[in-house]
Structures
1.
Amino acid sequence: MKKRFTADLVLLGTAFAWGTTFQLVKDALADIDTFPFLAIRFLAAFLILLPFRNGKFKCHPAAFRAGIYLFAGYAFQTLGLLWTTPSKAAFITGMNVIMVPFIAAALDKKLPYWGALAGAVLAAVGLGFISLEGTFVPGRGDLLVLCCAVFFALQILAVREASRVMNAQDLTLIQLGVVSLMSFAIWGGFGGNSINWTQNVLLALFITAVFATALAFLGQSWAQRYTSADRVALLLAAEPVFAGLFSYFYGGELFTSQKILGCALILAGILVSELTESHHLKEQSAKRSC
């Protein structure tokens, strides 16, 4: 029980770390370009975790695909933050957990379960409320972050495939390394060298590299061994809530009633999709055993 309580706190801390970084990154992007920021952030996280690696190394091709998807996801998310608000980016990013069952169903050539469909409808309506606020055309930043959610969904599926062979440490290190290398390659190949070492940049790099990347990935991998999948989903779904609160109190972001309703619908969709998935999997397992 003590380990389970500690695991819950770790997951809640992970959600808090991820949620609070949206506003910090948006502030930093005024003084640093996207790909230098990602290159430095993920290299630092890689170097922080590397000394803790132990055991026999095993590899799977899906780990490199997961790294590529993770890079694309963070690239779209960071670029999207240039043109959208931190809270909207957080809630749209959270829709990746709803996309996973649909992508998996497409790969397996079967229909998604009812919880995924219900969650998708709620989230789609909520996305309309927050991204079409005051206009009938979605913003450029919202569309970029929506692309981010798609790649994060693909990354989750690739991680599931690779984790059957690899341990969490090696899988995480490969992903962080791939993101860092690809960011450095684009940084060097296509320019975007603007870096002003302001307080906002240094703070964002420190918080995201240490807490929102290295410790968050390591903590999540450890905590999931001691708590149920339902509780993991419930606690990590607090990420966009923390993002909204942090953006409101720290960033001065305004929340209209339409935007609040949209955020609530997306959060409800995420919870419905995640909390019904384990029940769906249990039913499938029971049918196979019969």
2.
Amino acid sequence: MNRSDNQSLTAPTARRALSLDALRGFAILTMVLSGVIPYGILPSWMYHAQLPPPDHHFNPGLPGLTWVDLVFPLFLFALGAAIPLALSRRLEKGQSYLSILKYILERGFLLGFFAIFLRHVRPHVLDNTPESADWLIALAGFMIMFAIFTRLPHSWKNWIRWTVKGLGWSGAIILLVTLTYPDGTGFSLYRSDIIIIVLTNVAVFGSLIWLLTSHSILLRMGILGILLGFRLASQHAGWVQSVWEFSPVPWIYKLYYLQYLFIVLPGTVAGEFFLKWMQSNHKKNSSWSPGRFSALAVLTLLCIIMLLVLLQARLSWQTAVLTIILCVVIRWLVRNPVNEMEQLLKSLSEWGIYFLIAGLIFEPYEGGIKKDKSTVSYYLVTTGMSFFLLTFFSVILDHFSGKKYLKLLIDNGQNPMIAYVGIANFIWPVLGLLSLDSFILQITPGPWLGFLRGVFYTLLLAFMVSIITRNKIYWKT
């Protein structure tokens, strides 16, 4: 797992890692879908494992893993994979480490602001039953975020760019200082989107760690070993527990959030594999048959589905045995690579195998795999599944050239911020102001029609973001 040579990492020039975009797009759209499907009597695998139907009361002692529990780790893994691609580009341009540090901290500030502002303008935070005024505020928040986060064309004059940004920030400040909420309170740093807060922490610390360890994967994994020590020792009284629980700014940072580096840092390793592949200029004829590529795609996807089904069914030893069998076959399929594409797939598969087996060994520990509070097995197993899903997308996109089949995922993966806010701050407000929301609810009663309603909202969002992306409009921090 260590890169023995100390080759420099430079930015890609000719290729784009579309499979990373697809993975990110899949993660963000399934994350959105999981948030809009109705509570009720759908099967338990349609919800977080610790929030089972019909009452959806949080049960921290209930183990299991559903597709809903997987979507956040997939997004974290994709975030980690993007770190080497972004920072190596800056290193290639000759930027100093101080300049890159400034970029990392600025990005962290913008993500933190995004988490706080977004929560303040969510319609159902403004009121449990939003009315026209709440929908309009949510829409105004969406337009303000457009002004702040859109990457404006460099061809625009500087005064126009500064004016747009200035109007966005001014509008954000006005809303934050004037809005009141059902409990009578106003602006609060603690009113924030917890998912984005976690992303803020791991994006900053993951970037800093990669910058320090870009020459050594082994050193990077060693840092995870230290973090694992903190994670395990924090459960017992002592100085480690005190450090674990201490935070000078608890509204934005907790050491607990850095547990998700168990997913992000392996993601950076995947990003380096893609970086090497993207930089390669020569091609060799493939030694693998089309059937071998197809079998690799099928088995990696099958392994993910099997893990979700069997871990949720609590068939622990059966899961371990079947996973090991599949992993042996997958390892056999990726033997003897002769070109860069085959080496990429071999590396992704081998790392996926390692994390899956390690995660299943930890599975009985802490009462079984759980998302909340997340267990060691949860981090390791979902990391392995992320490697496998990325392998699947790489085969489909980079070997079989299946871009046209996954274009919707790719477009949304290139614009995840808009996808994340689009339903609550654009689609629902528009439908609400047009009085279409109540009509849609009337024609989709019951749990399964309610699920189809959620699919409709998600597809509507996906096509909206795709149109925005194809017009080269991006939100960036």
3.
Amino acid sequence: MKYPVRVRFAPSPTGTLHLGGARTALFNYLYAAKHKGCFHLRIEDTDVKRSKQEYVDEIRDSLRWLGLNWDGPIVFQSERKTNHRYAVRQLLKADKAYRCFCTVEELKKERENAIKSGMGYQYSGKCLDLTLSQIKLKINGAEPFCVRLKIPRGMTKFTDLIYGKISVMNKEIDDFIIQRSDGNPTYNLTVVVDDSDMEITHVIRGEDHLTNTPKQILIYKMLGKRIPKFAHLPMILGPDMKRLSKRHGASGVQEFHRQGYLPQALLNYLALLGWNPDTDQEIFTVDELINNFRIEQVQKKAAVFDEKKLLWVSGQHMAQSSSKELFDRIRRLNPDWQIDTDKDYLLRIIDIQKKRIKKLSEIITQSDFFFEDPGTYDPKTAKKRWRDETINKLIRGYIHRLSQLEEWTEKTLESELRELAEEMNVGASKLIHATRLAITGIPHGPSLFLLMELLGKAICLRRLKVALERLPLLLDSDEEGVGS
């Protein structure tokens, strides 16, 4: 019988959703969408001490912001303890698990002896030989115990969709604990029960779980459950080739949201961390990712996080997005941004800026000159672009031409400047740089003439005249900004 594809993303609410988790969620989502299956969200919140509701909310909000919407209600692992404990009882009843009454001190001594002998530690299994009467006596005496899986002889094999065929000798697997002495089942048991009950067909997760897979397959077999297919994703490394962490500046997904990244840009970049479409295409919409995604194209080699590449991908998506979409996202990001300014004017600013910036936040922080006259002038630019009175002469000539200009458009503004530069026998760039400094106070920005068209004649003439009074300035002007 062929089952429809059902996958899940199962984070623990012990911290924010980081990039590695977001990529795992994305690949599960893409696989489900590609095969017209279901994508589920399960919160593995059995770690009572570390699990927090605020992290549940943050994970949920992050996935929604990314557009990775799940099917059905969220499954909370903490609400399924009855199912987990029932599975443990089943294994005990079938003699596929046993109670272990070894104390912490006894286990510590076993481990120390194994280390001294130069052997890898495995539990001795001495509680495996306890008789029924011995077990009853210990239980009646209220001796604490955990429950261990009885590992059978033989070999466990499976085919990973990314790493290929994998086989492990069962003798290399310890009789691992499936229920702690406090009565709480462990991860390897709970994940099998939950995935089975949720009818998960494909488990797509990080490669750090690869060593758990043979253990879980044994539990599937002992419980008589259908075994899903597995795919283990390579790690994401920092530039220093160590596992990506906060020390690399790898913040949670919500921090990327606050910084002004577009969700589709972050998804696009995450998809490229380990997945190769076998083409030169690098910029994808979500629909294109779904259509092109194949789990077999995920690479075995660890992916390396590159912030410069992320910014480039983000810039491509900014340029391709409509100004209306960007405006709406900016409003959600910062509801107070230029709240009293005409919306059409803001849309025109976004339209001008979106092809040169990488994040929404840059539109907010790099657009002051659209609203206010420059209070200072970048000192390095002033020293380089307005060194002496010769620039004042050029600017006066440009002001004269602009004052008489009847048609205030990008084309006529550029034409007047280039004609003046030719008359004065100087390069047009010399006048362009000085004019930009006078109008914006900074060395870089959008197309100068498009900017001037949007600002209008009165504002441009005023700013040029003010610059004539304040520039040129001494080369040793204060570093905070010339003319402050």
4.
Amino acid sequence: MPAEFTGEQKLRIVLESIIRGVPRDDQCKKYGITSEQFQTWHDHLIKNGGSIYEQTGSNAGRGSNHTKKIRTRKIKYVPWYIKFLLILSIFSNLAAGIVWAVWNWSVQPVEPGLIVDAEPSVSQIEIADDNTSLVKDITTQPPELDDLIEQVDQFGKLSDDGTVRGMKAPLSGNSPRPNLEEMLAPALKLPEPPSSLELGNRVDFIDQTYEAKHVVYLIDAGSYQLKGPNAVERFESMKLSVLESLTKLSANSYFNLVLCWNLRESHALGKTILRANDENKRYATEWITSLGITPDLLKEGRNQFYPKELLYAQVLPGVVGPWYGLATAMSYDPDVVFFLAGNMPDFSPDEVSRNDFNGLGITRDTNLLANPQSAGVGQGLNSLIRKTAGYWLVALQSERNLPDNAEEIEEIALKRLGIDSSLPGLSFQKHAIPWGKSFDNFLAGLELGISKIPQVYVFQTLQEHTRWPTSLQKSMAEFCESTRGNLSVFP
């Protein structure tokens, strides 16, 4: 039940709400009164507050009995201008107090970083166990502004027990204030941005590092790769170099693996360029390791993935041999192409389709020379041709790089000229491929601008004392140089 208040206490409660702008509900909650009580006191103050100005000097000297009579006397009518003056006086005093408080606060130095959380209490109110509010000291006035500023000045200073006022933990050392640098967490050191080669733009191949994100490995998988001494070792070394480069590719890189052979045969690991994740690397590794070291196993292993009919590469007719393999690899729009090329001019005629000669102006049955036996030429001519070929090779190449046996020199010369000495009458095994025309067809079929042509690095894996035809060798070297690549011998 709310406590009984004196008239003076009721006046202070209403004036506190008016002067300090305290809402009615908060004021009622603070003093444990109802809204009806507060409104009654408020209306009574407005209606009867003017009676205090009607006391004269003679009445002031009278006794208490006369005062009681005046207080209990009813005022039937209060002029409107009296009410207006009373309200105007109250708000004028409130505005003057606010201006004075702001001015004093602005001129007093306040230490930065210190914040006062609590407002000074107007009165001390004790909450009883039965949830009733008892007014303990309603007449207690709020502390002066100077006292409040003094409390702010003392905040953060050391007290007698070594603690900082406003803080629970004592300070260590002789420092009068806590070190802000020690209280803050150390700043995190940002990692340096990785270079372009660390973001997946790095390809390692045969002890060299290349800056590229999209790479195509082009391998010559013709059966002629297994001909000659140490051919198997060269072929295995070629596969190992590709496997080592594949395993080092970043997961952010892209690649594809293309196998080509003869004039116009190719298979690829996929129709498009593939992300260098573990699964695609595993497919490429299994495909490379399946390439056997015999012609039959090699033919079986290379025909496992997408054949040329399913690829998106549309290579023009007349582009054959190394140029066909490069055209297929460049259709994936890579940054770099690594081409491990064998002796493609040494293809087997039985493995080449008639359609592969389209666009070259020749037929499959065209030979550079007719069969000597059909012309009635005997064995004497065979011996003459062998010796002539041997003299030609010695004049072309230093004897220090040739065998000592004359017959071995003649065999090398005949292979260099494309003549099969095992057949009767010395007939030509290889067709006369116009490599210059094939290169022109290759350039005509390029749909990329000169700036978008990838870097091309060609590594020749040829037998000893074997070279490409001069026109093919020269045009390939010039093309690689124009793409900022090169033509070299492997290994």
